[in-house]
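Progress against Task 2.4 (sequence-to-structure conversion) is shown through the following example record, which the project officer requested during the mid-term review.
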Amino acid sequence: MAMEELLQTSGYSVVLAESGEAALRRVDEQDFAVILMDARMPGVDGFTTARTIRERERSRSTPIIFLTGAYEDLSSMFRGYEAGAVDYMVKPILPEVLKFKISVFVELYNKNVALTREIAERRRAEEHLRSSEENLRALAGRLQSVREEESTRIAREIHDELGQALTGLKMDLTWVAKKLPPDQKILAAKTESMFNLIDGTIQSVRKIATRLRPEVLDELGLGAAIEWQAREFQKRSGIRCRLSLPAGALALDRERSTAAFRIFQELLTNVARHASATRIDVAMKVDQGILVLEVEDNGKGIDDPARFSAKSLGILGMRERALPFGGSIDIGAARDKGTRVKVSIPLALK
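Structure tokens generated for the chain above:
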């Protein structure tokens, strides 16, 4: 009763247990900042109770202080510490000393509760952030897929409808040119100019359709598309391209082929814009079920801040294209000078 009064007047919430069995039931029901226990109790003694408390998951770390007037010899104190107590105080107890010791454990308990709550809140925040990232990545992937589908549709319509219309115009103009009298040299020159204009427009339509969605990618596969794009890049930029591609066609699904091809296009764009290179080496292979595309230039190289900067949208875009398939982009220094990019995308066979 005196102990209860002492602790309650200090502002602590006290839970009483009149036996070892009752104490074990209490520690199974709730958490405590500290347990004060006598060595001699009805039923299960204090030493056995302390050991049992230590064996239970919920109360394993709860501090135990023995307050006793019995077993005052050193062997009893040793038994108390051996049972898992943090202190062994022999009556009569100095109230101020006891209150100080209890205040230390209560403060530690409160800090631990606050830390546990903070960890739980942070974990929830991280899970929410992770979920948001996954949703955004799924949305980005869906937008890319929709964009590719729309580009394919537009390219097909441009190629079919405009191409057919221009071909029809050329046929009609051919008919008109044949009907012109031989002395109509001005009209003949005009029709010749119109032929050239129609031919140029047809070429432009083909280029636009190809930029939107290269037919070679759908018809001949990724290897042929890489080879075609490298030749086109070499013509436009004057940068030599050396290729090492698989001899046979790769059994890739449409999504992975598209992702790898768009990444390759972005790599060529980055080389043309930033590398100041004169040569590019391109190698593609399948290694243990993983498509590996390596592009190495002999330019001025790339520094670490640029590789990981949030402003490097081209690099971020390439990583985002590879991530949905469990792929990765590794950017580093080339063997001599320049930049080496390794794209790895796990395959999903048709």
